[in-house]
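Translate sequence into structure tokens.
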Amino acid sequence: MKKNSLLLILVLLMSLTQVKSQTIQNGTFEAGKNEFLLNGKPYIIRAGEIHYSRIPKVYWDHRIKMAKAMGMNTICIYLFWNYHEMEQGVFDWSGEKDVAEFVKLIQANGLYCIVRPGPYVCAEWDMGGLPWWLLKKTDLKVRRKSDQFFMDRVKIYLKEAAKQLAPLQIQNGGPIIMVQVENEYGTWGDDQKYMEIMRVATGHQIFNVTNSMGM
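Result follows.
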């Protein structure tokens, strides 16, 4: 009897391991000729935007389920820089600010995710997400490559964000299929070099994504 019980436990453990390996698989997301390709197959993005920072954590799963019930297959999320680095050099990704947990909930509900980390996001949020302490620099020039202080702090912020989210990219078995570069820059500035630096910093050097959007 004892031998049979041990055998049953072993079979259950093997089954759970198999289910996990089937659920968490590395995938691909690419831009095809006229369509997006998810794991090699055409994928039409039907995206809804949810700001986890504006929703109590206890309701996160409910809001994601509501978006799915509306027919969405992808959730877009903003990262508000000043929400996670309220003091210079002090980052907080815990509790209500645990963006990684929010993204995991997206995946648990069978949806995919597009990340929009800024550094500027607008979204009717204070300073568009830029932290107040940047203003301590009297000659600050935001969203310009010529301001080394701004550029250095942006890269630090993006690296910290990547620590939270890079493991959740589709090629690592997560739901993140794309990362947006900056936001609404064309209506504000014309520093093309800045956008090129942001593209590299956000995509290839930090998040190591194959596709990134500039909007």
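Note: The chain has one domain: 25-214.
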